[in-house]
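Sat 14:20. Reprocessing the chain from the morning session after the first attempt stalled halfway. Input below, unchanged.
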Amino acid sequence: MRGQVVKLDRGFPLVRCEGGAMVRCEHATALVKTAYSRAVIGDYVDVSIPEGHDKGIIEDIAPRSREFVRKDPTERAVPQVLAANFDRVLVAQPLADVNLKRLERELVLAHETGAEVTVVLTKADLAEDERQVEAVRAAVRAIAGDVGVLTISSAAPESVEAVRELIPSGTTAVLIGKSGVGKSSLVNLLVGEDVLEIGDVREGDGKGRHTTVSREIVEIPGGGCIVDMPGVRGLGLWDAEAGIGAAFPDIEDLAARCRFRDCKHEDEPGCAVRAAVEAGEVAPERFESYQALRQEAREVERRREEARRARGEKASTRRPSRTSSNARASHRTPRKANRKRR
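Finished this time. Tokens:
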């Protein structure tokens, strides 16, 4: 029978089967032995329940419409899928303690999925005053570009309703952000009751303690579903070319005007990107982030090539990324790296 993985914790995946039955499952031996074949939150799976067996068995995983992928923090060149089959990514950052460098990286990973993306600034009630709120929103907009930015406060029900409107019935959103930014609190506000445990807030800085240890799909009354993700420290890039392009469209547009097609924006003549930085049209910090993320993406690809060669595989046999194809469909196709004058 068909079902969907609705919870992943330290035990076995919990699958909601057709008809509403909840079944704890383990993976079939064939899936365990095959790379990239473990079910994640949001996956649609085929489940069998053998007679006399105390758990269901996940026999197959349906093709995914989208994936949220990072580089596995424990491996040199292996992807880790954190969630599948969603429509929107909500990137949560605490308004009073925004980390703009991390936000840039989160936006790259979110864009790479090909889903709609929104930045959610939580805990606005902890801001010093309205000037701080506006200053932070302006700084975030400068990074987020065309991505929507919402400010959330538990004291302003209309701000929560604005998030609920982004998740209509029949859709699913993934909520990402580091520990303590208020993700579980936001989910509880959307649901209207405390369905997820939240940590105490420290009096000194207003930050919450990490409580979410599982990935879980939560239904929003009158709306769709939201996936509350544990706080993720490591956000290593994986196949992030399209995501970088989407997160830095201003620099990508300038790069299209460089004299050389494979310009690295270092010391090449006719570099439109460096010229814009020197003219004050692009902030040096933004350019540095772009270059650092590009370098990281190139290094990951180099290691992937080394791993493929070690396995005796050709580059053309590389497992295709569903997320990359989705993201690239809505963004500019990367140019070929042929160094020639136009």
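The two ends are 57 Å apart (CA to CA).
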